[in-house]
């Protein structure tokens, strides 16, 4: 299955799940809780206050060699948007990709997503735990402060 098949399939439009594709084109679904949606909204507000240029998006699809991964929240620079517009899925990860952790997430799954996003061009990846604590990651591993312009201090939502 291709990502365009998923997007255009009317039977998949109203599912209460986050949908991704694995390397074999199989659909992978993760249930989304209301807490997840609230944390997404809080992240959008946080990012809008510190990254005043570019665009913020939720549920952003990124094509990888292992299928399509969907970041919960992303920030894209004007340069990224000029290059890729609204192509779906993006062939490269936006500069910032954020994953909101759920009880169903295995550590290995999140570590793999961090590697995918960084390997596909993200400058930074954030994870947000159930208490709203944000952990930052770059190519060197976990960071204490963000390398993105305008983002300062310890972050939490």
UniProtKB/TrEMBL annotation:
Ranges for domain Putative restriction endonuclease: 17-140
Pfam families: Uma2
Domain of life: Bacteria
CDD domains: DUF820-like (cd06260)
Transmembrane segments: none
InterPro entries for the chain: Nuclease_put_TT1808 (IPR012296), Restrct_endonuc-II-like (IPR011335), Uma2 (IPR008538)
Name assigned to this protein: Putative restriction endonuclease domain-containing protein
Lineage: Bacteria, Pseudomonadati, Pseudomonadota, Gammaproteobacteria, Chromatiales
